[in-house]
Amino acid sequence: MNYRHSYHAGNHADMLKHAILLRMAQLLQRKDAPYCYLDSHAGTGLYDLAAEAAGKTGEYLDGIARLWSRSDLPPMIAALRDAVAQHNPDGQLRYYPGSPQLMADLLREQDRMILSELHPEDAELLRQNFAYNPQVAVHQRDGYELPKAFLPVVEKRALWLLDPPFEKTDDLSRSVKAMQLAIQRMRQTVIALWYPIKDQRLLRDFYRQVSTAELPKVLRVELNVRPADNAMGLNGSGLMLVNPPWPLWEELDQVLPWLADQLAQSGAGDWRMDWLVGEP
Ligand SMILES: C[S@@+](CC[C@H](N)C(=O)[O-])C[C@H]1O[C@@H](n2cnc3c(N)ncnc32)[C@H](O)[C@@H]1O
């Protein structure tokens, strides 16, 4: 396990993933009924952008730093910036909250969270971050096991972020199988699966697997900050959203073109959004 999110925290992919995740949680909170948030590949929860790891890649400079002091952000992006600002009370961008922290900040007293992180050091940091929060359970275990271990949840509403590091070639197919199991165990589970846009051949096979996995509604959302065939690193990323709450897609229609313009790194940024399964 080589991947450490501390090198990538706050980059363009986190902007897409975290803005949408926060918005989905807000939409679930329109009802008072409780929900359970599951984060199968959780990371540590909070990242110091002044630390060596973030400084080495500087990825956050083309992500959160570009949005940090803007006064013209669309509401979905402003909500993310404001959530990050809570961790930087002096107004200087230094700390970036990962998905578990962002979601913990939103938790109401009736909600709870289940986190899993396999890397021993990151799991320990995660445990320390949430040691005093009785609504948060931290597990050091394989995240793909979460549906089998925890679904269905007693709350009958679940939001699952599936955010593997994609170090191994079978991460895409394991993710599809895990989503399939989650839906078999609890059909109404809302799932966000993040994936990198790198190898187009692998992606075509992945799209085929998702569309034949007997999932209910699946919205595909992608944001490219460089041309998709650029040989360098992460050109963009996507989210497969299973059972996304309305009116997320109507809002994304406005937000994605804006984000593609603001986060483009060479040439024009690009985006797409379509229903891979079951347009409502
Ligand atoms: C992309 S990072 C997570 C970032 C986090 N979800 C966020 O948005 O802030 C992926 C994490 O998965 C962890 N990981 C890798 N394989 C795993 C597995 N099989 N089960 C659980 N965690 C795993 C890595 O150590 C890494 O911290």
Q: Can you tell me the residue ranges where pLDDT is under 50 for at least 5 consecutive residues? A: none
Name the shape in a single word. Answer: globular
| Helix vs. strand class | alpha/beta
User: How many angstroms does the end-to-end distance come to?
Assistant: 39 Å
Q: What name goes with the CATH superfamily?
A: Vaccinia Virus protein VP39
Characterize the largest beta sheet: strand count, sense, and whether it forms a barrel. 8 strands, mixed
> What is the level-2 CATH architecture name?
3-Layer(aba) Sandwich
Catalogue the ligands: S-adenosylmethionine
Under CATH, the topology can be stated as Rossmann fold
Folded structure, characterized:
The protein has helices spanning 12-28, 52-57, 64-67, 75-85, 99-106, 120-129, 146-150, 171-185, 200-211, 248-263; strands at residues 36-39, 46-48, 95-97, 112-116, 136-139, 158-162, 190-197, 218-224, 236-242, 270-277. The chain is an alpha/beta fold. Strands 5-4-1-6-7-9-8-10 form an eight-stranded mixed β-sheet, sandwiched between helices. It has one domain (5-277): Rossmann fold. The chain contains ten helices and ten strands. Helix 1 (12-28) packs parallel to helix 5 (99-106).
